[in-house]
Amino acid sequence: MLTLIKNGEVYAPHYLGKKDLLIVDKNIGYIADEINAPADFVEIKVIDATDKYVVPGFIDSHVHILGGGGEGSYKTRTPEIMLTDITTGGVTTVIGCLGTDGTTRKMENLIAKARGLEEEGVSTYIYTGSYQVPVRTLTGDIIDDLILIDKVIGVGEIALSDHRSSQPTLEDVTKIAAASRVGGILSGKAGVVNIHVGDGKRRLDYLEEIVENTEIPITQFLPTHINRNQELFVVGIDYAKKGGFVDLTTSIDATIASSAISCSQGLKQMLDAGVSIDNITFSSDGQGSIPVFDEKGQLLGLEVGKLTSLFGEVKASVQNEGVSLEDGLKVITSNPARILKLQNKGLVQEGKDADLVLLTKDTLEVDTVIAMGQVMIENKEIKVKGTFE
Ligand code: ZN
Fold it and tell me: Which of 118, 213, 249, 348 has its CA 20 to 30 Å from the CA of residue 231?
């Protein structure tokens, strides 16, 4: 199957200018100043991208695809994600994880859900484990999971500095990082440990100590929720300046917790503070439960974290904070692809997977979404639905 995208302005995420792209089956086949479909050739679908930006499909590196929550008892367990919850946010790759509950949600369910979503059209990977230590894996061993199970690209989300964590010792976390590193090296994967950082005052202390006292490099960790409060955010800036990666959560903002920093403002502040754009990523924490409070702090109810917040915060950083579109896109495309070693993702480049988003130039709205060469959304109209949608 051939799809030709014409007259778009390409951010790869670096700026390439006006280019035509030919998608050959599931890959970006050719990129050139002009590509024209010959007459009397096989059928070619042509998408006119005039007044559109053509950018890489978004990567959401922390999504509770099986549902999350349950922290207000059983009835607050959030439902599983649907395909269009993902694609309407322009997301074409998700990394699924378990959270607080590793009892009623298992790795066996998680991998089945990830495979189901992949059958429906998006690319999926998973972290092995949940908040808990010892880590509950699929095979019983972190290294074995990484080497033997294709979808497993790291460990997470391991909870630290949080009243809901299993209060692991420094040694426990060191051993997890060591196993993830070795499993990653032997399987050609990132072997990153995704760390849920809570509101506790130990913040990133464990990671700093492990990096200081062992041979494990700082790049082995991807701590998330760094924008959840001001104190952690400041520590995160310091950590990133030492070469660490920091992940900001787009479904967290001041409406959730008054001390939280929105990702759009957080990105701008980090760049102003001298953090390299290469060290920052965004993820949505999508499909987890989000408590909603009124002005008086009364609980109004629960909502489910949305993947649309991922690009929503990038868009806000560009429109309201003056961040360049190139930098904004990096945190949800090329950066997670590089950090998580997703070789064929995150770039508009010949030979890469045909995961693309077309954005309207004036309003930066997600207009068209292509995942592995398949048009999932076209002119804001959903073309492919999940099995039960
Ligand atoms: Zn978390």
Answer: 213
